[in-house]
Amino acid sequence: MNLKRLLVAPALALAVFALGACVTINVYFPAAEAQQAAEEFVEKVLGEEGEAAPAGGDPQALRAPVRAGFNPLSLLIGEAHAQEADITIRTPAIQAIQDRMAARFQSGLQAHFDSGAVGFGKDGLVVLRDPSKVALKDRVSVNQLVADENRDRNAVYREIAVANNHPEWETQIRETFARQWVASARKGWWYQASDGAWKQK
To answer: Per the confidence metrics, is the pTM higher than 0.85?
Structure first.
């Protein structure tokens, strides 16, 4: 009996160690931290006048759910490994893109959001929603403005994922930012709902 116990104990310990090793490698997407990072980034781009409340009037409606409560895996692995990873948006590349986007918003895009010509797409990009609201002579420059903005948006979603050593998070980061652009939109601006329909805040 004792010999059996001596043989089983190390095998059990090895299994627990292997399980712990697997868990620490598979870090899940930190939704709450990503939402906070997106809010910080978007608010800087749009400036101080942007409203933080999401469409529909419920400030929590577009926020990612925060995981709370007891995590049973913390019994097997250290609490530090069980925590969500932080999301950083403070790298030189990300800051450079953010600065370009803020300057572009102030110098041109804001007026087109205010007029209703452009809106936030459901994919985290900017869409020329109503070309009739742009003077014919300005349409080429507005199309270029939208293209430049979307190039930077695609780049920043990818850069944030890469900067956090999880390129596979790019889609989830894009979705988080798409929600936050709408949440921070000002009254009267247009945004695209998940079914593709355009709505006004």
So the answer is: no
